[in-house]
Specification:
six-stranded mixed β-sheet; 2 domains; 17 strands; Arc Repressor Mutant, subunit A; 13 helices; three-stranded antiparallel β-sheet; alpha/beta; about 40% helix; Dna Topoisomerase Vi A Subunit, Chain: A, domain 2
Amino acid sequence: MKNVVKLLEEYFGRKVLEDLKKCKNPSLELISRTLSNAYFDEKSGLIKLGSKKEKRSFLSLGQTKKFMQTLLVASQIKKNLEENQPAIGTRQLFYLLKHTIPGTNENTFDDQKKESDPIIEDIEVSLDVLREQLGLFAVPDGYIVGPMVAYDKKTGDILDYTKMGLGGGAIPALVEEEFYQIKEISAKFVLVVEKYQVWQLLNQEKFWDKHNCLLLTGKGQAARSTRRLLARLNREFNLPVYVFTDLDPWGFYIYSVYKQGSIKLAFFSEKAGVPRAKFLGLTTKDIEKYGIQKTNWIKLNQLDYKRIKELKNYPWFKRKEWQEELKRLEKFGYKVESDSLVTKKIEFTANVYLPDKIENQDFLP
């Protein structure tokens, strides 16, 4: 692990002190996290952040508060690490820093999402570290079940994911090797399921046991630790990754975030993207092939059509197969949820649909 305290001192402390000693305007240079600085790298198959930087200075009316807030966040993180404090949540960091500035009616921070959270991301990007290495964690919301045994170094627990019951095992906030060691794994692939209730049904059917796989869900748009664990499983163990979502532009986008990351968190993609992932979700061709009745279709609305148009223009959806699928979806005019497959038979998804798609390698790239 990088010496994060030293990095914080160099990047956010020493430079500012040098400016003050020289009677210069104290400033910080941070990598720009704007959309214009994000790009799709075709070679790696990931959304990446460019090298453009922005300056944040003290003697600038529009930047003074943000400059001060940046130093406050960096200072508190450094203090927590030096004192070997337990990892805390971003909400707790916000409260540690929030107070009224003496002699004023001004608070250091008023809004977590608009003020302290973006600064945490600035620090992550600038130092090229994860917030988990800064002693912070995002709320995890993923679950996994299947033939894998891990050792949680933080708690000292051995976690056998074949013995987690119907609820499966919660994916912890810290999933890097220094915190979470994967001791045994015999799975042949990872099946990522968009919907928690669909994942739950597959778990009850013991799909993971019958097909020797890991069954994972991020309950919709996955949180950071779920995506990072998935990337580890793919890179370290060479496990194929199949993503099962609804037939709609939102499900397609969830798949793309697992695969190459997101524009908003472009700096995070290299640590959490799985460029070799395959789309196993519902497609327009599946409607006729599996006889999914019209009573289970939901009419596309204006927002859906707008989202389809946006997806068409993303470089990572420019492949012929995806352009054709998006056009078919527009023409079809409906979205279909994976939950609706139970109308065929409750066990249809686990015993017919998914095994058939996997056996025939019926994927979209």
